[in-house]
Amino acid sequence: MRAAESLRARFGTGKGAHIRLEKRIPIQAGLGGGSADAAVTLLALAHLWKLSASKQDLLGLGSRLGADVPFFLFGGTAHGTGIGDNIAPWRDPSEKFVLIIKPNANTRTSEAYKALDERSLTTPNSKTILSSSQPTEHFDIGRCASLENDFEAVVFDLEPEIARAKRALVQSGAQAAALAGSGSAVFGIFDSEDAQRRAIQAIELETGWRVFPCKTVGRGEYARALGDLNQFLG
């Protein structure tokens, strides 16, 4: 609703729409489900209302809705700077199979940020070290060393069940595993669908855990899925 209202206010249109949302991505999981909904709402309504919206218009509206909304206007592998809303596309890696576990635990983003040790982002003399901790463009989603999430240190202390879910993925043969965003979902990466399937069979689920088998989506495939909506991002 915020996305629709912001777009209508920006272009001064009195048009409306009936929106039906079918949620498949679990909430409070760190998977960007709400941000993806907002991004596609902007694109869909700009198309439906025949607005003369530019890419910069939608990026500006999206960044005010949420820091990661701009990413979902492009998809694929990208490097986000600023608060995460300045998106620079990177080369997509080869297709990987992903297993997501949503444990029976929830984390609030505000609590995770509050608990995050700020010393991990600064030097003793308070100079930022973010520039030296950024990954290179040779990021490889299949390498354990490439996957780092500073939130793990605090979220795993807040909710040990989330840490157990990550261990379950590693023990089931994941090449790499990590916390998604600020949680509470974790994901594991597998080279093949067979390995992914074996992992599902091997994981001993605790009460309330949900498992979602997925695969990575490249930028080209993402753009094709958007279809006519992609006209605003050309």
Describe the protein.
The chain contains 9 helices and 6 strands, in the order H-H-H-E-E-E-H-H-H-H-E-E-H-E-H. The model is unreliable at 126-132 (pLDDT under 50). The radius of gyration is 19 Å and the shape is globular. It has 234 residues and is α+β, with helices and mostly antiparallel strands. The strands form 2 sheets. Strands 4-5-3-6 form a 4-stranded antiparallel beta sheet. A two-stranded antiparallel ribbon has the order 1-2. The protein is 37% helix and 12% strand. A hairpin with a 4-residue loop joins strand 1 and strand 2. The protein folds into 2 domains: 2-90 and 218-233, Ribosomal Protein S5, domain 2; 97-215, GHMP kinase, C-terminal domain (Alpha-Beta Plaits), CATH 3.30.70.890.
Taking all Cα atoms into account, the compactness measure Rg is 19 Å
Strand content: 5-15%
The main β sheet shows up as: 4 strands, antiparallel
The tally of domains stands at: 2
- The end-to-end distance, rounded to whole angstroms, is 25 Å
CATH superfamily of the largest domain: GHMP kinase, C-terminal domain
Level-2 CATH architecture of the largest domain: 2-Layer Sandwich
What is the tally of helical segments? Answer: 9
- Name the shape in a single word: globular
Mean pLDDT score: 87
Topology:
Elements (H helix, E strand, L loop, with lengths): L1 H10 L21 H16 L6 H11 L12 E4 L4 E4 L7 E6 L6 H7 L14 H4 L17 H8 L1 H12 L4 E4 L6 E5 L2 H10 L7 E6 L3 H8 L8
Antiparallel strand pairs: 1-2, 3-5, 3-6, 4-5
Helix pairs in contact: 1-2, 1-3, 2-3, 6-7
